[in-house]
Design a protein that fits this description.
CATH architecture: Alpha-Beta Barrel
CATH topology: TIM Barrel
Number of domains: 1
CATH class: Alpha Beta
Strand content: 15-25%
Helix content: 25-40%
Number of strands: 8
């Protein structure tokens, strides 16, 4: 059995004080969670949120990490910087990073390998655009992202995959539970062929396309879906807690 993982992605929201208030509101609502609970927060919030999470069952994640150990990369953040504040997870290759900051499958791969070498758990995002889905290219696009973004990984079970159909992020649109399950099944099959079927069977794959309190139970009931990468709903304590407690 794969243990579900629900991770909040705050994106560019919440000052440090707002972030502390939010996790303090979330923590008492998720104490009996049967899944791993993660909040991925803006870099500037990490020190304060890290302190606020002590004594809770919520793990701390970052929204990005650079592939270099250190150097002339203005505005970037290294794995060592994250580790010093107790960060355990890091989102890599989110569609917004790909769209706005020129992330490629190559840089996703480099960041993923760096995170793994540092002992961080990467949440690697893959997904297709609306045009790609409508023109029947979903599997082709995902296969390329998998083969290029995950190459040279020694133990694929040490990462988390987040399938995020780009057309369902921040739009209010959601793939049907059956669509999400079918596509994640393809992702698992492709990873099984690239690595090994047993490894793929152990790999946790989240759905990251507008999962919310209203649709989480249906999505989480699907055999292939092991959790969610939650955007907007992670900014409201009751909504995020409802998703974390999907099985209650």
């Amino acid at each position: 059995m794969r243990k579900p993982i629900i991770a909040g992605n705050w994106k560019m929201n919440n000052t440090a004080s707002q972030g502390v208030a939010l996790v303090k509101a979330i923590a008492p609502l998720v104490t009996e969670a049967n899944c791993d609970v993660v909040v991925c927060v803006p870099a500037i919030d990490i020190p304060a949120v890290s302190e606020a999470l002590k004594g809770t069952n919520i793990k701390l994640g970052a929204e990005n990490v650079h592939f270099a150990e250190k150097g002339a990369y203005t505005g970037e953040i290294s794995a060592a910087m994250l580790l010093e504040y107790g960060v355990e997870y890091v989102i890599i290759g989110h569609s917004e990073r790909r769209q706005y900051f020129a992330e490629t499958d190559e840089t996703v791969n480099k960041r993923t390998l760096t995170a793994l070498n540092a002992g961080l758990t990467p949440i690697v995002c893959i997904g297709e655009s609306l045009e790609e889905r409508e023109t029947g290219k979903t599997e082709e696009v995902l296969a390329t992202q998998i083969h290029e973004g995950l190459k040279n990984i020694e133990d694929i079970t040490k990462i988390v995959i987040a399938y995020e159909p780009v057309w369902a992020i921040g739009t209010g649109k959601t793939a049907t539970a059956e669509q999400a399950n079918e596509t994640i099944g393809f992702i698992r099959k492709t990873i099984g062929e690239m690595f090994c079927p047993n490894c793929a069977a152990k790999l946790r794959i989240q759905y990251g396309g507008s999962m919310n309190a209203g649709n989480c139970k249906e999505l989480m009931a699907m055999e292939e879906i092991d959790g969610g990468l939650i955007g907007g709903a992670s900014l409201k304590a009751p909504d995020f807690a409802a998703i974390v407690n999907f099985d209650k």
